[in-house]
Design brief:
Elements: E1 4-7, H1 9-21, H2 29-37, E2 45-49, E3 52-56, E4 60-66, E5 72-80, H3 83-90, E6 94-95, E7 101-104, H4 105-108, H5 117-129, H6 134-164, E8 167-174, E9 181-185, E10 197-202, H7 203-208, E11 223-232, E12 237-241, H8 247-254, E13 260-264, H9 267-284, H10 293-296, H11 327-338, E14 342-346, H12 353-366, E15 371-375, H13 378-388, E16 396-398, H14 414-504, H15 509-520, H16 525-537, H17 542-600, H18 605-663, H19 665-672, H20 678-695, H21 702-754, H22 757-766, H23 775-811, H24 818-826, E17 829-833, E18 850-856, H25 863-870, E19 873-880, H26 891-899, H27 905-912, H28 915-922, E20 928-930, E21 933-934, H29 939-949, E22 955-956, H30 958-961, E23 975-979, E24 990-992, E25 995-997, H31 999-1015, E26 1020-1026, H32 1029-1039, E27 1047-1053, E28 1062-1068, H33 1084-1091, E29 1094-1102, H34 1104-1109, H35 1115-1126, E30 1130-1132
Helix pairs in contact: 1-2, 3-6, 3-9, 6-9, 6-26, 6-27, 9-25, 11-12, 12-13, 14-21, 14-22, 14-23, 14-24, 15-21, 16-19, 17-18, 29-33, 31-32
């Protein structure tokens, strides 16, 4: 155990000197050192590095070696500790015992001397137990060490600026309207700038705390009086614009202050650096919402992979917009929602980053997450909030300065929400009072009517049913009477028709039924008439009938004989044919084997003998068949004699029949036709004979019967109809009686209900008749009952709380901070800039952790700016584009970084790079997504942007391909470079301080705007941009002198236009000088932003010769000009000089 830390004399001397430099007196160096390394007496922090024990404090590192004294170590060296070092090692430290004492060498003489190297060994061994991935930690440490060094240099620059600006003032004069104050000062070397924050103090305060190193400025009570509005070196005065909200306080403080000291203070930068330092310390101490954060920034490869699956998600919680997103947008949303550590989305210009952010926020909010939305700029934060702030599932709070929050979003600021609530309370109290008195007027009367309305409410369905039944009976009776009348008319008409038919019909009903039955079995009228005529008019004798019988018999026997003989002969011929085919087959086989035996010498005797036997067998069968055929032929000759006999008999019978036919030729012709054949006669005779056998002789008046059969059918049908009508009529009469009885009963029931007091009250109150009851009465009753009940509850509540309400209303003149907590608890979307989330002013979330952190424009923020919100997010989503403008490094800081020996060129290069970009390039595919489809730029513009800044990976949405800029008849392309004359002085750049401007390009811009205004027919938004403020200031001045009919023009720097868009953009290149100084236009990110702001048309005004001279330094701009020239899209600026003429 270590009991003593012995401080060597040289170490104490160094501490003493530091104390003198800082003006610290009245305390010994030993006590001062003790207070630093063991401030609360709980023990000293130490770690072991390369065998040395190092004691750590925020100000110093003490380097210790083993001492000869027992249980002691000695401090052999001391140096100052950086914030970064302290943050880096504090989480790795152990603690020496609280009773360990710091002593001098003089005091150490009294301690027993025992070598104690073993003590150091124990400490080193213990330290090894806490070993970790030192290589990974070194990469992590080196990156953040550079950030820490740069941060300290920034603070040094801020402090130096503050010291350099110190001067005295001799008077303060307030203007009449108290809007400004004027100070007489002593101006020396410092150049005071408009917008700088001014702090003053009295001579007494300054001199009482003065230190030569100006360290006292940290402890002086200064007065922030406002910002510099103007500065006059000749009169040695500066004009200050005070903060309106602090006016009373400022006036009170400066009232008796006639002279004193003044300096400028970049309070914003100071607070920013303090918050960045705090974030860095929390990162090193693992005081982060995501405990793995230290592991994956910037070494993002170690982050847990995300997922792009929807399986475990509630699809109903996605908005309708989600289904319209393109593939990479959907995957970005899913990857972000499913991330465990971090997910990065690169969104080039116009690819819908905001839409993607809104989709993920709305889904996460529905899932009950608390979300922090952040960005480097207020504009980016407000852009998202304006899109989704009013959505049902979003309860948003905006943290930020009211003056910087976008118009419309100030309502989300906590103070505004509380103030609106307070106004609502006052308004509600007044409205409640009015409402109470309005209710009170007729409340008692309505209470009396309540029971009637409740009774009717329960009975409405029954009343409607009665009315419905009455109406139904009325309609049924009317219809019934009409039907009875029609039935009577129809019955009379049918009876008349039957009587008429009875007079016409002369045949008996039996004969008609007989003929009708025959017809029903398939006989037509014509067939039946022919059969009747055949029976009546054709004479067939007994002899003729026998002859017909003989003829038919002979013919049948002849057919059978011929058919039998032919069938037998054909069968024999077919069998003979098959035998011959088999015999031929075996004959062929015998010939084949004999030839083979002859040709090859092989013996095939057995095969030959077998096949010859088979051949002989079939030859015998064939001979047998020939004999059978011959026999059958002989037999047929004898059979022919029999056939001849049948033929003779048939001919004789036919002759007899034919003779008879001549006698009945006329009726037969009318039946069979003039050219009927003997066969047709026989066929009809057969039919007639069959008909007679089945039905007997037809009556002589068959022809007349057939003529009246249709009339008979008609009468029978009409008679049936008459019977039906009579039955129906009887039914109708019975039904009429029943309905009349029902009507009578219903009317009696209505009278009973109308006599009920509640029904009578309701009908009188609503001015209705009983037969008017409908579903509307349910609504009327329900509304009356509910309104009265609500009024009853309201009056009871009002009477009980009237004193409280009036008291609350009276208190609403004072801001109620207690209301803030209610909003804070319910909020699920907190929105603030990266720096704003750490502000202590009215910010309940400065120390909060969030389920999800979403940072927009992450590529634009510096590493430490990103770190401030990142330490608060359990799951982190970064959305940005490192190919666009990122945070700039001030020239003064860049000079200091270059001068310092603590970091090398590679580390400076890494420091300048975007943290988002570094991480995106390193991230695995499972932790990032590229939005590859743009919806902003016309194709000519997007092709330049895609080819030169995104390796051709940026694609156009379908709707872009169909877009027109409206000037195609004059300018075919959408992207033009307007070349300025290189040899004219007007188009050479000039300087305002360090900021260049170009008068010729300003003139060319004015001419181009006038030309556009003349040639377009509808309003267009135009952005005029330049890399330098000196140029934009002059552009704005000249443009404001011109009135445009169709153009709405806005002027600003390229940087200010990042994240924005206009239909037409005109960029001034500005640079054109003989020294070939290129400045900002060398930065690809800045040119990418400039070229990608336009939706429809992009114009670049600049000298192409200057680009050509500097093509090694500006390779992309050189290639862009070359590509535009190939497309005939490089024109002279002078083509637009004369308004009224078309561009060539």
């Amino acid at each position: 155990m270590i009991n003593y830390v012995i401080v060597l004399f040289p170490v104490l001397e160094k501490v003493r000197q530091d104390m003198l430099d800082q003006g610290i007196i009245n305390i010994s160096p030993l006590q001062y050192l003790t207070n630093l390394v063991n401030p609360d007496r709980t023990g000293m922090l130490y770690n072991v590095v390369n065998g040395d024990i190092r004691i750590l404090s925020e100000k110093y590192i003490l380097f210790c070696k083993p001492a000869d004294e027992k249980n002691s170590i000695k401090v052999v060296h001391i140096r100052k500790c950086t914030t970064f070092e302290y943050a880096s090692f504090i989480s790795l430290c152990e603690v020496l015992p609280s009773d360990c004492t710091i002593i001098t060498m003089e005091d150490a003489k009294y301690i027993e001397k025992i070598p104690n190297d073993f003590l150091i060994q124990d400490i080193i061994k213990k330290d090894k137990k806490n070993d970790f991935d030192k290589k990974k930690f070194k990469e992590f440490k080196d990156y953040w060490k550079t950030q820490d060094i740069a941060s300290k240099l920034e603070k040094e620059i801020i402090n130096n600026k503050k010291i350099e600006s110190v001067t005295t003032f001799s008077s303060i004069q307030l203007k009449m309207d108290i809007s400004v104050m004027e100070l007489s000062i002593t101006m020396e070397d410092y150049n005071y700038q408009v917008g700088e924050q001014v702090i003053i103090t009295s001579n007494e305060e300054w001199e009482s705390k003065f230190r030569l190193d100006y360290s006292h400025m940290e402890h002086i009570k200064g007065i922030e009086i406002g910002i510099i509005k103007s500065c006059d070196k000749d009169s040695q005065t500066i004009t200050i614009e005070p903060k309106i909200q602090n006016m009373d306080k400022i006036l009170k403080q400066v009232y008796e202050l006639e002279e004193g000291y003044l300096w400028v203070s970049d309070i914003g930068s100071t607070v920013k650096k303090r918050n960045e330092d705090t974030a860095l310390k929390q990162l090193f101490n693992n005081q982060t919402a995501n405990k793995n954060l230290k592991e994956f920034i910037p070494e993002v490869e170690s982050a847990q992979p995300s997922s792009f699956e929807m399986n475990k998600m509630n699809k109903k919680d996605f908005t309708a917009t989600f289904a319209t997103l393109n593939e990479n947008q959907r995957l970005s949303v899913l990857g972000a929602i499913n991330t465990e550590d971090i997910f990065l989305i690169q969104g080039p210009p116009g690819t819908g980053k905001t839409t993607v952010i809104c989709e993920m926020i709305q889904y996460l909010a529905k899932q009950g997450n608390k979300i922090l939305l952040s960005a480097q700029t207020h504009l980016a934060v407000d852009n998202v909030l304006q899109r989704i702030g009013e959505e049902e599932e979003i309860d948003a709070i905006r943290i930020g300065n009211n003056e910087k929050v976008a118009l419309g979003n100030e309502k989300y600021i906590l103070e505004q929400r509380v103030e609106e609530l307070q106004k609502s309370i006052v308004s509600t109290t007044k409205e409640n009072k009015k409402k109470y008195h309005a209710i009170e007027k007729d409340y008692d009367i309505r209470r009396q009517k309540l029971i009637s309305y409740e009774y009717v409410y329960e009975k409405v369905d029954a009343f409607m049913s009665i009315n419905k039944n009455i109406e139904k009976a009325r309609n049924e009776l009317a219809n019934l009477l009409s039907e009875i009348n029609e039935t009577e008319k129809m019955s009379a008409s049918v009876t008349n028709e039957i009587n008429y038919l009875d007079e016409i019909l002369i045949n008996s009903e039996d004969i008609l039924e007989q003929i009708k039955n025959i017809l029903s079995e398939g006989y037509s009228h014509e067939k039946l008439a022919n059969l009747s005529k055949f029976q009546m008019e054709v004479f067939i004798s007994k002899i003729d009938k026998e002859a017909i019988k003989e003829f038919k018999s002979c013919i049948i026997r002849l057919k059978n004989v011929e058919k039998e003989e032919i069938n037998k002969l054909e069968k024999l011929e077919l069998e003979k044919k098959k035998i011959l085919q088999s015999k031929a087959f075996y004959t062929q086989k015998v010939a084949f084997y004999k030839a083979e035996q002859h040709n090859t010498g092989n013996s095939y005797e057995s095969q030959i003998i077998t096949y010859e036997k088979l051949e002989h067998t079939y030859m015998l069968e064939c001979q047998e068949k020939d004999s059978q055929i011959e026999h059958l032929t002989f037999k047929s000759e004898k059979q022919s004699e029999k056939i001849n006999d049948l033929v003779k008999r048939a001919s004789k019978a036919k002759s007899i029949i034919t003779a008879t036919l001549d006698l009945s030729k006329e009726p037969l012709v009318s039946i069979l036709g003039s050219k009927f054949t003997f066969k047709e006669f026989l066929d009809f005779y057969t039919q007639a004979q069959l008909f007679e056998w089945k039905y007997g002789k037809l009556p002589e008046n068959t022809m007349d019967v057939l003529a009246q059969i249709s009339l008979f059918d008609k009468r029978k049908k009409i008679k049936k109809q008459l019977d039906q009508l009579q039955n129906h009529y009887e039914d109708l009469i019975k039904l009429k009686t029943n309905i009349s009885d029902t009507q009578s009963q219903m009317r009696q029931l209505i009278q009973i209900h109308i006599s009920n007091d509640h029904v009578h009250c309701y009908l009188t109150d609503t001015n209705k008749e009983f037969n008017q009851f409908s579903t509307e009465d349910l609504t009327i009753c329900s509304s009356f009952i509910n309104t009265l009940n609500e009024d009853t509850v309201f009056m009871g509540f009002y009477n009980q709380t009237i004193d409280i309400q009036e008291e609350w209303a009276s208190r609403m003149d004072v801001y109620q901070t207690s209301f803030e907590e209610a909003y804070v608890k319910s909020a699920n979307l907190i929105s603030a800039t990266c720096l704003g989330i750490a502000t202590k002013s009215n910010n309940y979330f400065s120390e909060s952790e969030f389920d999800y952190l979403i940072i927009d424009e992450a590529g634009r923020a510096s590493s430490l700016e990103l770190l401030i919100p990142m330490i608060r997010g359990k799951k982190i989503v970064l959305v940005g584009d490192h190919k666009q403008i990122s945070s700039d490094v001030e020239r003064e800081l860049m000079d200091k970084l270059t001068e310092t020996e603590e970091i090398d060129e590679n580390e400076i290069s890494t420091y300048k790079a975007s943290l988002f970009g570094l991480m995106y390039e390193k991230a695995k595919s499972s932790n990032k997504m590229f939005l590859d489809t743009q919806f902003r730029m016309n194709s000519d513009i997007s092709k330049i942007v895609s080819d030169f800044y995104y390796d051709g990976k940026l694609l156009d949405a379908d709707k872009i391909k169909e877009r027109s800029h409206g000037l195609e008849n004059k300018l075919i392309q959408s992207f033009y470079w307007l070349n300025t004359p290189g040899n004219m002085e007007l188009y050479q750049e000039s300087k305002e301080g360090s900021s260049p401007y170009n008068k010729g390009e300003i003139k060319g811009t004015i001419n181009l705007l006038k030309w556009l205004d003349e040639n377009i027919s509808e309003e267009k938004s135009v952005g005029v941009i330049a890399p330098y403020k000196a140029q934009t200031k002059r552009l704005e001045k000249e443009i404001n002198k011109v009135e445009f009919n169709h153009l709405v023009v806005e002027v600003n720097t390229i940087d200010a236009f990042q994240g924005r868009e206009k239909q037409i953009v005109i960029m001034n290149l500005v640079r054109n000088n003989p020294n070939n100084t290129i400045g900002f236009i060398e930065q690809d990110s800045r040119m990418n932003v400039a070229f990608s702001r336009a939706q429809e048309m992009m114009f670049v005004i600049g000298n192409t010769e200057f680009i050509h001279r500097n093509k090694m330094k500006l390779p992309k701009l050189y290639e862009i000009v070359a590509q535009l020239r190939e497309n005939n899209a490089v024109k002279s600026i002078e083509e637009f000089a004369k308004v009224g003429q078309n561009a060539k």
